[in-house]
Amino acid sequence: MFVNDPKDVDKKIVEEEAKHLRKVLNTFTLYKTHALSSNNRRRTDYYSLSERHKALIPEQLTKLNNIDKAISKNYHVLKQILADGKLFTGEETSFNNDKDVDQVTEFDMDKLRSTIKQFVREWAIEGQPERDAAYKPLLDALNESFKDISKEERASIRVLVPGAGLGRLAFDIVQQGFSCQGNEFSFFMLLASHFILNRMERVHQYEIYPYIHSFSNIVCSDDQLKPIFIPDILPSNIPPNSNFSMVAGDFIEVYGEEQHTEKWDCVVTCFFVDTAKNILEYMEIFHRILKPGGLWINLGPLLYHYENSPGDMSIELTLEQVKFAAKDIGFRFQVP
Questions:
Q1: Per-residue pLDDT tens for 69-119?
Q2: Contact present, 195 and 81 (Cβ < 8 Å)
Q3: Cα-Cα-Cα-Cα dihedral of 96, 98, 101, 104, to 10°?
Q4: Which BP terms does GO give this entry (predicted)?
Q5: Closest CA to 234 of 193, 191, 201
Q6: What is the DSSP string of 103-168?
Q7: 221 — alpha (psi -120 to 50), left (phi > 0) or beta?
Q8: Rounded to two decimals, what is the model's pTM?
C-alpha cells in the first residue's frame, strides 16, 4: 500500500497554483500582441475586398487604426496591474515573451477581456445601472437587517462576500459602515482588484477601452471606441474603524475546513451560489461560519456553471429544492 505524503500533496498544489498564476501573468503580458494580431487580421480581410466594396466602407481603416491605439492604452493599464505581480509571485514580473511557462490560449485571453469589461460594471459611472439592479437590493436588505445598529457601531458587524470579483460590492458594504471581507478565486480578478483597491490616487485616473474586442452587434463605431474612465469613486475613502480586506483562494478551501472557527454576522452572495459544483456544500459552509442568528443574503440565478462541463461534478437544484435544503440545514426565511 502506498500513501501520499501530505507534504508532497501540498507542494504539488502550491506548484500548480504558481504555474497557473504565471500563465495568468503571461496572458496580461501578451494582451497587446494578441489583440493587435486579431485587429490586423481584420485589416487583411479589408484589403482582400474588391475596390467597389472598399469604397462602401471608407472609414474602416481609420477605425482599425484607432482600435490599435485603444489596444495600446488598455495595455498601459495592464502593465500597471502587472507591476503588482511580484506581490503574488515574490519576484519581478517578466515581460519577455520567450519565457512563457505555458502557451496562452484564446480561453485565457477571453478571461482577460472579460476582466477589462468588469471594470465597467464595478468601477465606472457607466456600470451604475447594473450595480443598482444587483447590489442595491442586497445593500437595502443588509441595512434593514441592522437598522437598529448605529453608524458608529456598524464596524463591529462582520460581513463576508464570497466571489467578490473586483471588490465593488464589498467596498459598497464597507461604505455603509460595516466591516467586510471579500473572497475571490480567479487570479485575473485578484490582480485587477488589488490594482483598483490599492493603487488609485484619484477618480477617473485610468482610461480603458473595453468594447474594442468584439465587432458583433455594434450600432456605431463611436460606441465601440468609447473610452471608460476608472474608478468612479476613490476606493480609499472608507469610514473610520471599518475593516476591509480581500482573501485569495477557493471559497471551500478557505472557509470550508472544520477547524475554520472565524464567525461572521452576515454572508452576502451575488451571482455566486451557482458557481458551486455542489451547492449544498456551499450552504452548509454558510451556516457553519455564521454566528447564531447570522444572515445569508443572496441574489442571482441558478445558472449552474458546471452543468455541461465534461468531467466535472455538478449538482443542479431547482429553487424549490434549494429552499427545502436550506431549511433542513438550519436556515429560516426572513421576509424583508
A1: 999 999 999 999 999 776 665 555 554 444 554 588 999 999 999 999 999
A2: yes
A3: 90
A4: methylation
A5: 201
A6: PPPHHHHHHHHHHHHHHHHHHSGGGHHHHHHHHHHHHHHHHHHTTTS-TTTGGGSEEEEES-TTSH
A7: alpha
A8: 0.90
